[in-house]
Amino acid sequence: MAVASLEIYKILPGTNCGDCGHPTCLSFVNDLVFRGKNPDLCPHLSPADRQKISDLVRAGSPRKLESYGQVMFHPLETAIKRVQPLNFSYLSALMNEGSVYHAEDNSLTLPFLNTKLTVTKEQITDEEGTPLPPGFQTAVYNFLATVEKIHPENQWVSFKELPGAVFLSSYFVNNVEGLVSGQFSTRTDQLISAAKTLGGKILEDPGISPADVKISFFIVPKITVRLLFWDSTEEDNLPAVATFLFDTGIYRLDLESLTYLIEELVKRMIATL
Ligand code: SF4
After folding, report:
1. Among residues 96, 129, 149, which one ends one of the domains?
2. How confident is the chain (273 residues) per 10-residue block, as mean pLDDT?
3. CB of 12 sitting under 6 A from ligand 1
4. Residues 259 and 163 in one domain
């Protein structure tokens, strides 16, 4: 049954508080849509919003996921509200890995790929002092709001195997991984060069995967992803394939923020071509 997952998701509070027993609002959508769970399990919905969700699940009208970055994100204001109670000094000590707390203005320096972001509780800027796009700021604030619960386990899975990813996995495969395979097909050398420019490390261990190229990217503290790439082959007429792998311990970060951060990585890789 096709249902209006996106509409349901937009009604939920988007705080990923976990009170419904799910790590994120998005994984709760999956249970509402595919397992017939009761919207009452989210205690933060008004009666009117509960009714709207019940109606959408019942109607089961098909909807198409269009522009992920513009449609999916809850507003930046919501993410900013989430970080107000956080103790940046504590988080910096928790993350280590290059993050630095500045007591004089209660800000954080946060590494992102090979760059450093400046994070205050009002905005996030790049190394030139330019505010990041709202979606990017939302993703980073959401990361900070959940970083305490992220515990890498060194177990690697594809996007669709992450909890709650059913709803977004075709988007991720087609629009994120598909972009990498399309842009870097027959360009393995450029892929390696782009990865190194962004601080990626080429993994040589054949035990990880038989892929032609294996790259490890440090995204932000506690979040490292792997990119596996098989180039196209003329003799077998096979297209290039790119797959990202994620540590199972990062599931507390909502998938839309994770997707945004990976899209940003891909955008920067392509910009090196
Ligand atoms: S859906 Fe779940 S995670 Fe989202 S706000 Fe409601 S209780 Fe919290």
Report:
1. 149
2. 66 82 75 79 92 82 41 70 95 92 97 97 96 90 94 94 82 88 94 97 89 96 96 86 95 87 92 91
3. yes
4. yes
